[in-house]
Specification:
The chain is mainly alpha-helical. It has ten helices and no strands.
Length: 202
């Protein structure tokens, strides 16, 4: 109950700050940036694996959000709206770098029977806030993630690192729940193939 109360309070504060931003108050926006820059940076870093690129993309995303904040209608939480902008900025950047995944991925397949709890990769090594005991395994995981397309890397980061629910991922990416399930299925399949020996040794 206390956590829920904190979340509600935070969302109420966000609404007030957004209203001030929509009135042209840049100080209010600075408060929102301060509140969310850590979470935003962590999300982007998990996708690009480079500190400077992550900060640059976060900056680009915040600038884009400021320019678009007049369009925010409060139909979702402010952070959900911001998360979508940051995700799109990052995916666009990855596409421009021509980071491509395997050809077996197909968003047209609506996989409604994918097991939600199926393992994606050795989770203890995936969490960014945990101490990495095996640098070589961490390197292998990073290399495997780089072999995913930007869209498939995004769903893995959102589900396994950020802990978002399927409907939250769909909202952030602007796609259907079936598409999220499909992307997760194929991303997991690819990662499990690339990291088969890592799974066997953990």
């Amino acid at each position: 109950m206390q956590i829920d109360a904190i979340n509600i309070t935070g969302e109420t504060e966000d609404v007030d700050l957004v209203k001030r931003c929509q009135g042209g108050d840049s100080k209010a926006y600075n408060e929102l940036v301060t509140r969310y820059r850590g979470k935003v940076y962590a999300m982007i870093y998990n996708m690009v694996r480079n500190e400077q690129d992550a900060w640059d993309l976060a900056q680009d995303g915040f600038v884009k959000a400021w320019k678009s904040i007049a369009n925010f209608r409060g139909q979702s939480a402010f952070y959900t709206w911001l998360y979508r902008i940051m995700t799109n900025v990052t995916i666009d950047w990855l596409r421009k770098k021509q980071i491509q995944g395997g050809t077996e991925f197909d968003d047209s397949l609506e996989l409604n029977h994918v097991e939600p709890g199926s393992a994606t990769m050795p989770k203890a090594e995936l969490l960014p806030d945990e101490k990495m005991e095996h640098a070589e395994i961490r390197k292998r995981i990073d290399t495997a993630l780089e072999k995913l397309s930007p869209e498939h890397r995004a769903v893995i980061v959102m589900k396994e690192m950020d802990g978002l629910q399927y409907n939250e991922i769909a909202d952030a990416l602007g796609c259907s729940l079936g598409t999220v399930m499909s992307r997760l299925f194929y991303a997991r399949k690819k990662l499990q193939t690339l990291l088969r020996d890592v799974y066997e040794n953990i």
